[in-house]
Amino acid sequence: MTTLTDADAVDGLRDALGLLKDREQVAERLLESSARHSFDPDEELDWEAPFEEGKWFWPPELVSLYDTPMWRRMSEEQRILLSRHEAAALASLGIWFELILMQLLVRHIYDKAATSAHVRYALTEIEDECRHSKMFARVITRSGTPWYPVARVHQNLGRLFKTISTTPGSFTATLLGEEVLDWMQRLTFPDERVQPLIRGVTRIHVVEEARHVRYAREELRRQMVTAPRWSQEFTRLTSGEFARVFSVAFVNPEVYTQVGLDRREAVAQVKASGHRRDVMQQGSRRLTDFLDDIGVLRGAGRRLWKSSGLLA
Matching InterPro entries, A to Z (predicted)? Predict the structure, then answer.
């Protein structure tokens, strides 16, 4: 049996103070970046400009049915219409996710010093996410498409998750929601085949989300060192389950009905699509490599990630 010596205690305290100092330094840099590179979508984007004929609302390669038998039977106009509805469904998913994220951030800082840079940046991120949610809602309205809420079961699972989630679990879920969509948006905003308004929305989101990803990654790395073992194991399991929910919720099947497709056939073809599986795994790879590196993808949690289809 080992015993904790005074030297061990001093080393532990020194390590903890070092982590807190690093946390403050990261937050200060992110606050400086926020001051330089934050945008007001209402002012930055031309919301009144008409959509351009023949341009996509999402890169075709990222549309769920791309390269399926059903896709090959569709007209170009119907494919573009599907991209319009899938872009709206992703914006709807983004709003749902950002509402969960804002609540998790408020929980995270509830009992922390409000004067710290770490808390001030969390409040800045909440401010960013409020703007993003309003921006996504406005682009849905401007696109003339429905709002696509997630399924009731996912609404209830989200409500449960944000109630019971631990801090490392919250930041793992944050990265899952942000990094896959971020990968897709980085392909979207420079793509001249895509409508200018959609490109503008994704550009703003990519620039500001880069800070959010850095904040979440740095905090999760610290948490997976300092959190109790039970919390680390709980994080592995909950993150795996959230990955399964996220992979299902990523495409709302109602979009197929809205564009005149057979919903059941479309869902089956997406599930069978090797291209779609590759897209989702490519979009997740940077995140899963990071999670693997810090010890999140282990045991039963790793098996859940594999069953989600996001991890090869």
Answer: AurF/CmlI, Ferritin-like_SF, RNR-like
13-34 as b/e: b if 16+ CB within 10 A: eeeeeebeeebeebbeebeebb
Q: What is the pLDDT of residues 282-298, one digit of tens each?
A: 999 999 999 999 999 99
Q: What is the pLDDT of residues 11-59, one digit of tens each?
A: 333 444 455 678 899 999 999 999 999 999 999 999 999 999 999 999 9
Q: Are 309 and 247 in contact (CB under 8 A)?
A: yes
Can you give the three-state secondary structure of the chain, one letter per residue?
A: CCCCCHHHHHHHHHHHHHHHHHHHHHHHHHHHHHHHCCCCHHHHCCCCCCCCCCCECCCHHHCCCCCCHHHHHCCHHHHHHHHHHHHHHHHHHHHHHHHHHHHHHHHHHCCCCCCCHHHHHHHHHHHHHHHHHHHHHHHHHHHCCCCCCCCHHHHHHHHHHHHHCCHHHHHHHHHHHHHHHHHHHHHHCCCCCECHHHHHHHHHHHHHHHHHHHHHHHHHHHHHHHCCHHHHHHHHHHHHHHHHHHHHHCCCCHHHHHCCCCHHHHHHHHHHCHHHHHHHHHHHHHHHHHHHHCCCCCHHHHHHHHHHCCCC
The top-level CATH class assigned to 59-308 is mainly alpha
